[in-house]
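My hope is that you will study the protein record below before we discuss the fold together.
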Amino acid sequence: MSDEFRKMPPCAPMAMPAQDFSAEFRDQSAPGAAPVEGTRLWRLMAFSPAVVATLGLTWVIHGWFAAQGINVIEAILLTLICFNFFWIAFSVSTVALGLVSLARREPPARPTAMQPQKVALLMPIYNEVPWYVLGNARSMLEELRARGGQHDYSMFILSDTQDDAIAAQEQESVQALLASLSPGLKLYYRRRSRNTDRKVGNIADWVANWGAEFPAMLVLDADSLMTGRAILRLTDALARDPGAGLIQSFPQLIGAQTVFARMQQFANGVYGMALAEGLARWCGQEGNYWGHNAIIRTAAFASCAGLPHLRSWRGQDQLIMSHDFVEAGLLRRAGWGVRFLPRIRGSYEETPQTLIDHILRDRRWCQGNLQHLNLLWSRGFRSISRFHMFNGAVGYLMSPIWFALLVMWALIGMGENASVLTYFSETNPTMPSWPELTETRHVLIIVLMYAMLLVPKLMGIAALPLSGIRFNEFGGGLWFALSFLSEVLLSVIYAPILMVQQMIAVFRTLFGLQSGWSPQARDGGQYGLGTLLMCHALETISGLALTAGIIAGLVSPWLLPISISLLCAVPLSALSGFSMSGRTRTWLGTREDHREPLITQAARHYRTELKSVLERDKVQTPAE
């Protein structure tokens, strides 16, 4: 193997000490993040409606239960309903905030002077398809070269691959890529023989050995793809804001080839803009980090965001898995700003192609997000940073809460004479006591929940014209309407299955049954009937029980959509991986499907070219 790419640039060491969560920390080099004008008002507009709506619902349901006094079961049910409702209402108010923000006409900000930046583009990889990753890397470098500008960029492929065969392919791919890169482009490759601390350790190793040479680093994922314009805008934003420690872009989904991935991609492309805009408004300088497609001030990250291991309740040291939320909180704790710029277009990532692939990724995310509960009382974190971590954990804890509500509603049934269990009564004092929730009230709660889940989608559609997006970019109004209805139907169908799977993920995490942080299956997988049955056994059994209760007249027929979804979990999971490749781009198509960005065209070209070179060299190389 040639030394041309084996050697990295000269070492430029930088200390990256592990932080102490029991002590406050302030980075003396942080100039202090300038407050974003109006942040307090935006936060009031985001949180107040959710709090008021939840208190109103609590008062109404309390009135239903209070006639004969509230027992323990009623208190639990009331708490579960209102806790869930707050988070739904908060998402609605955040999207509404984004709608208001997009409707405002703000004068463009005056450009300020900035220093040219030397930026490292970091792409950590682990057992990935080499030619696919490097095709993306080349397309970004070539775009930056074509755009020019005053900043200087270098690409680092940071391999944690532990499979020697894949590592050999990586090295061959890098060697082939370097032979075809345009002059002046800088690409380096480093492989760690041991992937200590996984991605956290991979980035920390680069910072400790080469970070001092690069004032800024833009962290990518193996499936990340960013236009040159998006990278330049992020770099300019960091250069013009000396108090910014991290600036996060809004990655949009691309590359969907299946029914499930199309559904996710359409939702992200249509509803995501308003949600992201609202989030950016109330976060201000206390935003979050999603682990990729974000630019970071290297010295700030090294000084403030080194992660220690956590001690589990079993007494074992654990790596912080969802490190990004914590790193953002540590940067803000030290005095650096963490911003979110959702209007930067051209930041892309991919999504799992099947339901099972999504579930496997979600289990890893669940494990990481629940760890954050251990950090909520750490010293020095800002309130909003704690809220980000708590919100991430709640996103998973809500699933077992929803499942508990489903079980209780099913047991309550349709009244005292048509219920799985009977209420306490003077003639039957030994039976469990269940709250007085009539069929009408039961239906009102369910309809309210469904409506609150639909409203953000409608507001997201209303936000599209305010963002300068036309419906004909989605194939025309008729196809857009059909895609919207399809996405709503699919999300309703898959939601109960995801609820059960997230509940399983929570309990796997609590009992230490997680399998670890394995790489994502980028292309999805074809799963046999045995795997599908094993994965979705609990949903199927739950669906059978619910359906039997409905047929027997003991369970409300309003739960029929949930029971059908759970009962059909296996065929629905098989449907999720149905390939849409080569079929119509119009159904559930996004703007990027109808008008493919140049960066994705270039990436596909470079992937194909590199793959062909590798296959040709393999054929020409005589067998040993």
Remarks:
- The CA atoms of residues 250 and 342 lie 5 Å apart.
